[in-house]
């Protein structure tokens, strides 16, 4: 064990999770030659081949799979030491990566990060706002917002909030097209929605709920892109109420008839749930979602109700 360098395990975990030297190097803030050298050093010290090196990437060997479980346990213990023994100042420094669907991440969460950054200046906040599922087990994120609870895995999940979506279009588009008085009228209109084979979770497949057999002619994998297309007059789309609220160019379509309810779930890897900096992020997101319940559900603001 004299030649064994514990720090090589950081490089091993990064390559095991990303499958590529360049991606691991970016995550570690190193160059790919350094990552390659540290992996080779680890293999030499253990006298075991840990990866199969192929043109499409690095895959774990049987020895690598065995080491992965032990290395992740060591990583968890290191995080616990930093959180429990290092003191509050140390615990609330470092990096926390948040994964979220693009609508929630870009429109709801991103504008609220300023107050979080101000409260915890020692934290580096990373927000991945993408229309795909992120793996907590591969440490693609420390905290993830999803549209359904996990079916398996070492994950702690809690329901964050319900939210509602409805049909929207631009005023100019509606003025130039036949009126929409019932869901059946939508078949005479251009629909903006998801690309069918890129829908990453069944909770997003909601056009059949609006009208059986309804399909989108203008498609995008991103709900933010869909909303921008609807604003520009591309057609009628299903948009989150909290996204449409601040966009004066959007008009509700069939608001009394079409209302879709979904839920956001907050996920944390079980090994990280008690790490202080992760707890701080979780508490912040929960507070923000709770205080914005009316906005998420598309309920009119108090001043709007008073005016009415």
Task: Please describe what this structure looks like.
This protein has 308 residues and is an alpha/beta fold. The protein contains 14 helices and eleven strands. α9 links the parallel β7 and β8. α1 crosses α4 and α2 crosses α3. It is elongated and about 75 Å long.
Tell me the strand percentage band. 15-25%
Uncertain runs = 302-308
Oligomer description = single chain
| CATH fold naming of the largest domain | D-Maltodextrin-Binding Protein, domain 2
Write a brief structural summary:
This protein has 308 residues and is of the alpha/beta class.
Secondary structure topology:
Elements: H1 8-18, H2 21-28, H3 32-46, E1 51-54, E2 57-60, H4 62-84, H5 88-91, E3 94-100, H6 102-109, H7 113-119, E4 123-129, E5 143-146, E6 155-170, H8 171-175, E7 191-193, H9 207-210, E8 218-219, H10 223-231, E9 236-240, H11 241-244, E10 250-253, E11 260-269, H12 276-291, H13 293-296, H14 302-307
Parallel strand pairs: 3-4, 3-5, 7-8, 7-9
Antiparallel strand pairs: 1-2, 5-11, 6-9, 6-10, 6-11
Protein traits:
single chain, 308 residues, Arc Repressor Mutant, subunit A, D-Maltodextrin-Binding Protein, domain 2, two-stranded antiparallel ribbon, 11 strands, 40% helix, elongated
């Amino acid at each position: 064990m004299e030649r064994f360098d514990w720090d090589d395990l950081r490089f091993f975990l990064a390559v095991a999770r990303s499958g590529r030297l360049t991606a691991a190097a970016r995550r570690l803030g190193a160059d790919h030659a350094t990552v390659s050298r540290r992996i080779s050093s680890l293999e030499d010290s253990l006298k075991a081949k840990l990866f199969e090196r192929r043109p499409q990437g690095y895959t774990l060997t049987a020895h690598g799979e065995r080491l992965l479980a032990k290395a992740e346990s060591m990583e968890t213990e290191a995080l616990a030491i930093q959180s429990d023994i290092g003191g509050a100042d140390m615990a609330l420094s470092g990096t926390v990566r948040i994964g979220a669907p693009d609508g929630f991440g870009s429109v709801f969460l991103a504008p609220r990060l300023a107050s979080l950054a101000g409260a915890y200046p020692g934290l580096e906040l990373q927000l991945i706002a993408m229309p795909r599922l992120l793996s907590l087990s591969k440490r693609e994120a420390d905290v993830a917002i999803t549209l359904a609870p996990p079916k398996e895995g070492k994950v702690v999940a809690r329901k964050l909030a319900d939210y509602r979506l409805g049909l929207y279009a631009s005023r100019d588009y509606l003025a130039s097209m036949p009126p929409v008085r019932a869901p059946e009228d939508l078949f005479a209109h251009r629909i903006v929605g998801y690309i069918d084979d890129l829908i990453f979770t069944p909770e997003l497949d909601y056009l059949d709920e609006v009208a059986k057999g309804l399909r989108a002619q203008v498609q995008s994998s991103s709900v933010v892109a869909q909303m921008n297309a609807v604003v520009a007059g591309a057609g009628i789309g299903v948009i989150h109420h909290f996204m449409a609220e601040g966009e004066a160019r959007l008009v509700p379509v069939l608001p009394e008839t079409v209302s879709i309810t979904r839920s956001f779930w907050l996920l944390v890897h079980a090994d990280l749930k008690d790490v202080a900096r992760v707890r701080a992020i979780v508490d912040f997101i929960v507070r923000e979602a709770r205080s914005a319940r009316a906005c998420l559900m598309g309920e009119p603001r108090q001043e709007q109700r008073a005016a009415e």
